[in-house]
Amino acid sequence: xxxxxxxxxxxxxxxxxxxxxxxxxxxxxxxxxxxxxxxxxxxxxxxxxxxxxxxxxxxxxxxxxxxxxxxxxxxxxxxxxxxxxxxxxxxxxxxxxxxxxxxxxxxxxxxxxxxxxxxxxxxxxxxxxxxxxxxxxxxxxxxxxxxxxxxxxxxxxxxxxxxxxxxxxxxxxxxxxxxxxxxxxxxxxxxxxxxxxxxxxxxxxxxxxxxxxxxxxxxxxxxxxxxxxxxxxxxxxxxxxxxxxxxxxxxxxxxxxxxxxxxxxxxxxxxxxxxxxxxxxxxxxxxxxxxxxxxxxxxxxxxxxxxxxxxxxxxxxxxxxxxxxxxxxxxxxxxxxxxxxxxxxx
Length: 346
Known about the structure:
Blueprint: H1 14-20, E1 25-26, E2 29-30, H2 43-48, H3 62-69, H4 83-88, H5 94-121, H6 123-126, H7 144-185, H8 194-214, H9 220-244, H10 257-284, H11 289-293, H12 296-311, H13 318-324, H14 326-345
Antiparallel strand pairs: 1-2
Helix pairs in contact: 5-7, 5-8, 7-8, 8-9, 9-10, 10-12, 12-14
């Protein structure tokens, strides 16, 4: 039977065979072709060629770039500004709520200034990091002078807002926050243990700022819970980094897993004991003492659940763990709900 030559198997071109290996041809249709490694182009391959930025391979809107630069996703941390007036049961007052929200906005501006300044200081090192190289300053999406100019404007705006809201007290807290943050960025982040305290102090100063804005005196138990809780979170994050990315920070070489585990456990225990003592003390002065005392249950379980998430390899960032762990989220919501009920009941 006559078969047209076009339908007969075609010989593989010798040059293609040498370049890619034999894969076979059926008629004139090419079967799945193996792509040689040298022909695979991706972000990692681009970086391997010596490029210091991948910004040329992707285009982002300016709004997205600036939102990334000022770390909008990190702003929920500033909600600690609301902790003191909420714990005092005065956040439902319109004037207190207004000042507290304004203080929250001021700290968003201050923290954004710190992030921009930190990115400028770390730009060279960030370009060699697999994740941090995507930061706008390191990637060349925002110029160094522009980043510094915006950082100064945000810092001035945040301090001015703080002074207008809470007078000298809130202004001092804002200056302390900027001072400790810049000291950390300019060198103290390389000093073991001290850097843990500096990072934790950022959380504490947010809570202190909330008290200053609302004109609420912080109790000793509140201060201990916030301070120990912040140190617990920071030590947990460093432990995760040491286990997963030991080269991501210079200071990690000075730590051991055992030390960070002890630091995390000590801080967590201090936060738990202080909270329980506060809950029972506050309950004793309430018409319904059991309502405050029972809040210790979800608080304890949430702390344990967060510890479990860290040991399972979670990032150590509270907001990310909270969003990914539904059980932890439910426990936190339960704690907030019970606390609100206790405050409402008096």
